[in-house]
Design a protein that fits this description.
alpha+beta; 5-stranded mixed β-sheet; 14 strands; 26% helix; 22% strand
């Protein structure tokens, strides 16, 4: 009798984290560190958020979030990896100018230079599989990569410059599929509480891509974060409830579903107004990232 592959993967996912719960804590508290792997070469703010200033220069960040929980260690995104130059080379001249980056410092290199036990990373959860979030996946062969099926399917059929097949087709990548169940959390209808304690929760932010996921992180009642992937590139987009500028469509179709992407921005905007203690972190906002603990430093309990 044929088994449902999704149910099999989901069971494996559940058992994996259940095992961590029984095996004992790796750390006594939840903590995280932001690891910057590069910055963009720069663009006027009006090019990254609708209504932004033409006089303000922004250098968007590319990074990853390393999360240590008593029951396991996770990576949210991987930023730019060791093979990013080769991966990026196939893009058009215009795309190379628009998405140009500078001084890449791959995630795996920083971990190794600081003698971080890479073997302790239990899973990688990409916010989505666009090139600047998935570049470093190939640097972590064998480590489980958890994505929703529609995100992986969309990426495998996607085109440059958004998706780069060299990043997701390696035989060394250990893909595992998951689904976010219909479990209301904050103002989201679908979520997954990874450790069943409310400290690390994935939420549905589909729209920018087929199945983008956000990450809620609770360190204490007074310190809570919501990492929103590319729902917006800057906090200004959240504060003012504004999408990316339409002129970007000249180069690339930025959103998988524009209407749904706009709804997600509105959702996060509402959270920004309702929960002032919640720190909202767009994946590329260099100003917000500057206030996060940077590797090898971690957040303090």
């Amino acid at each position: 009798m044929m088994r449902n592959p999704l149910k099999v993967y989901w069971l494996a996912f559940y058992l994996l984290f259940s095992f961590w719960a029984e095996a004992g804590p790796a750390t006594s508290t939840v903590r995280f560190s932001f690891i910057e792997t590069s910055q963009s070469k720069g663009a006027q703010e009006a090019m990254v958020v609708k209504g932004g200033s033409w006089w303000t220069r922004r250098h968007l960040t590319h990074g990853a979030v390393l999360i240590e929980h008593p029951q396991g260690t996770l990576l949210y995104d991987t930023g730019l990896g060791t093979q990013v130059d080769e991966q990026f080379a196939g893009n058009s001249w215009l795309a190379k100018q628009l998405f140009a980056f500078t001084h890449p410092r791959p995630l795996i290199t920083q971990l190794q230079e600081n003698h971080y036990p890479v073997q302790n990373i239990d899973a990688i959860i990409p916010s989505h599989l666009h090139w600047d979030h998935a570049s470093g996946l190939v640097d972590f062969p064998g480590i489980p990569i958890w994505v929703q099926p529609s995100e992986l399917e969309s990426a495998r059929s996607g085109e440059m410059p958004s998706f780069l097949q060299s990043q997701i087709n390696s035989d060394t990548l250990n893909w595992h599929t998951m689904e976010l169940p219909e479990n209301p959390f904050l103002n989201f209808t679908r979520s997954l509480d990874i450790f069943h304690d409310g400290s690390v929760v994935l939420v549905d932010l589909s729209g920018h891509t087929a199945a983008q996921v956000g990450l809620f992180l609770k360190l204490s009642e007074a310190e809570q974060y919501l990492f929103i992937g590319d729902t917006t590139w800057t906090l200004e987009g959240v504060i003012n409830n504004k999408p990316r500028p339409g002129m970007l469509k000249i180069v690339v179709e930025v959103e998988d579903n524009q209407s749904l992407a706009d709804q997600r921005i509105a959702q996060v905007h509402e959270l920004y107004k309702t929960y002032p203690e919640l720190v909202i972190v767009p994946a590329h906002d260099e100003r917000v990232a500057a206030d996060l603990p940077h590797f090898p430093e971690f957040s303090q309990p």
